[in-house]
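Bug #2210: token dump truncated for Glycosyltransferase?
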Amino acid sequence: MIPKVSVIVPIYNVEKYLDQCVQALLAQTLSDIEIILIDDGSPDNCPKICDDYAAQYPNIKVIHKKNAGLGMACNSGLDVATGEYVAFCDSDDYVDSDMYMTMYNVAQKYTCDAVFTGLKRITMAGIPAGTVTHQKEFKLYKNENEIHTLLKDLIASDPYAREERAIQVSAKVVLYRRNLIEKKHLRFVSERILPSEDLIFNVDVLANSNIVCVLPQTFYNYRTNPISISHTVKKEKFNLFKQLYIEITDRCHRLGVEDNVQLRIQRMFLGYTRSYICNILNSNITNIEKKQITSSICKDAIWKPIWKTYPLSVMPLPHRIFTFAMRHNFYSLLLVLAKIKK
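Reproduced locally. Full output below:
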């Protein structure tokens, strides 16, 4: 019997939270769930915890592999998944008991290729830290133009829009039709090659979808870890952001997605870079290194066409000041702004 949903859980060094994650999946109100635990070379007790669960529950599979990163771990799960639909859950997060029942029923009712929802941020201690949703009501996207609108919202909000419309880019809050993923040979790129591997994957999914739904509910509990992968300062990361900018631009042009999509891509790139500069300036590296890295970013040739086209005047004042400092390579001002943001 084919499982209704395969849930892929990439695992690395999270033994403190793994039980809560797996128990939440076992408690799902939807029957016929396949749980795939991917031990990505975890150095702690996670491999044994995974094996113990697999020995106790027949619907749990375990894959032990050499560490290759989150994206590659997800791909290992896709290679063995057998469910009608597939989902992903980080091993230090957990989901509400009705998440996959709700999303699966919607997917079945409307023959969706993907169902998106929001998430709830929690601290590492499990304390609520805010909710992130895309919209306040149920929305069905059922033709190319509508799905292109969703795709643009996935990248970033329109800079001229009065309200934020950006959708969660995380693959963790999406239920995917597995047949579409396999038929189109869709896989994650490594985050060691491109940042925001979830964004690239979701753009590819939407590009091949006929019907997509976005729900207003939030079922996914996401731990915000101040020392997680996404918060680590790496000197070469700006080059990865540049490559992401180029990759998303190329994909959208190939798909024929127009109507100010380039401004959205620029907004995304500015946002990533702004956060990265703040991380650098608030890090423990030397002041000389901070100035060298920041200066090389601000002077990069990629900004020249962006400064010519992006509507800086519509940015929120703090972002506008920060962008002004970037544009003119005012290191001292950037340092002050980064400290304020911290």
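Output looks complete on our side. The chain has a mean pLDDT of 93. Marking as cannot-reproduce; reopen if the truncation happens again.
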